[in-house]
Amino acid sequence: MWQRRTEKIFVFNTPTSWYASVCAGALNIDPDRTINLYPRYANIGSVFPIANLYHAVASDCIHDNDLILVYTNDAGATAGAMVMRWGEVAIG
């Protein structure tokens, strides 16, 4: 699902099986630098950005000082994005 160790990580909302690959293609990003949890959960809506971050950290794919893009959208024509530098974060 995800290859180990890149400096830049891309976390997208994945409401369909193809959405992460469309985002990666539109931004010219290697798909191995994204995560797609749609096969595991299907569409879990606005929880996706947090779930994707959680699984990326739990899978040892995000590390201190990694640069992460988080992007999400919703059916109501709303969208959000942030870029963050990962630091010391405890996850449950």
What does this structure look like?
This protein has 92 residues and is α/β, with parallel strands linked by helices. It has one domain: 3-Layer(aba) Sandwich (Peroxisomal Thiolase, Chain A, domain 1). Helices cover 25% and strands 25% of the residues. It is built from three helices and four strands. A four-stranded mixed beta sheet has the order 2-1-3-4, sandwiched between helices. Strand 1, helix 1 and strand 2 form a beta-alpha-beta unit. The longest helix has 11 residues. The radius of gyration is 12 Å and the shape is globular. It starts with 7 loop residues before the first strand and ends in a 7-residue tail after the last strand. The N terminus is likely disordered.
Describe the structure in brief:
The chain is an alpha/beta fold and 92 residues long. 25% of the residues lie in helices and 25% in strands. It starts with 7 loop residues before the first strand and ends in a 7-residue tail after the last strand.
Write down the CATH topology. Answer: Peroxisomal Thiolase, Chain A, domain 1
Low-confidence stretches: 1-6
The mean pLDDT is 80
Helix content: 25-40%
Q: How many beta-strand runs?
A: 4
Task: Please give the largest β-sheet.
Answer: 4 strands, mixed
Strand content bin: 25-35%
Element string (H = helix, E = strand)? EHEHHEE
Tally the structural domains: 1
Please report the distance between the alpha carbons of the first and last residues: 21 Å
In CATH, the architecture is: 3-Layer(aba) Sandwich
Computed structural class: alpha/beta
Q: How many helical elements?
A: 3
What is the strand arrangement across the widest sheet?
2-1-3-4
Instruction: Say what oligomer this is.
Output: single chain
Q: Which CATH first-tier class would you pick? A: Alpha Beta
Going by CATH, what is the homologous superfamily?
Answer: Thiolase/Chalcone synthase
How does the overall form come out from the CA principal axes? globular
Q: Determine Rg (CA atoms, Å).
A: 12 Å
